[in-house]
Amino acid sequence: MNHQQTQSTGDGALLRRYEYEDGWVVAADLGVDAENVSVDTVDETAIVVIEGSGDPVESEFELPGTAESVSVENGVITVEGER
Fold it and tell me: Which Pfam families match (predicted)?
């Protein structure tokens, strides 16, 4: 298993990437309720929109491949794909 971790500047999400022989997982800890988050994937990019009391906040992060599944639970986005 190969593990990479990055912390964005400021109050950004903690992003972790795990690579396995047969697939990969990218997890981002947003610290917000799941009902306030929507995630869409396009090719090798995840697009995250967080709804709050003000204007929505949109962010993108690169994926190591095309996503097979996306879930949001307890403020953590998990994107999984196959090699």
Answer: DUF7127
Q: Could you give the C-alpha distances from 72 to 10, 25, 26, in angstroms and in order?
A: 22, 13, 12
Q: Residues 6 or more apart from 73 whose CB is under 8 A from it? A: 34
Number of domains in the chain: 1
In which region does residue 55 sit, left (phi positive, over 0), alpha (psi from -120 to 50) or beta (all else)?
A: beta
Q: Residue 11: CA atoms inside 13 Å, Cβ hemisphere, count?
A: 4
Question: What global pTM score does this model have?
Answer: 0.80
Nearest CA to 24 out of 60, 62, 64 is that of 64
Q: What angle do CA 11, 40, 14 make, to 5 degrees?
A: 25
Domain that holds residue 53: 2-82
